[in-house]
Amino acid sequence: MTKIDWSKYPVIPGFDSLKWKRETQRKIYEETNGMTWEEQRERLHQVSERAAVRRKAFAERRAEEAQK
Q1: How far apart are CA 17 and CA 29, in angstroms?
Q2: Using N-to-C axis directions, what is the helix angle for 17-32 and 37-67, rounded to 10°?
Q3: Do 35 and 43 form a contact (C-beta atoms < 8 A)?
Q4: H helices within the chain, ranges in order?
Q5: Separation between Cα atoms, residue 41 and residue 29, nearest integer Å
Q6: pLDDT on residue 59
Q7: Which residues of the chain, if any, have pLDDT below 50?
Q8: 61 CA to centre of own chain
Q9: Which residues contact 40 (CB under 8 A, 6 or more apart)?
Q10: What is the pLDDT of residue 68?
Q11: In a 10 Å sphere around its CB, with 0-12 CB exposed, 13-18 middle and 19+ buried, how is residue 28 labelled?
């Protein structure tokens, strides 16, 4: 079994993870309420594409910073 080194994940003061989770789930529910399965699938596809673009941009910024 893999052990997790929790020291790599510092606590963020004032951040309530359960509150964040509930709010995020509520927003997703409100966005998808009344959508057909096809519309939900298309939304998920778009969200995934936006996340991929953000990950790529983040990786590029980190690579640039590492070269400095």
Answers
A1: 18
A2: 130
A3: yes
A4: 17-32, 37-67
A5: 14
A6: 96
A7: none
A8: 18
A9: 32
A10: 78
A11: middle
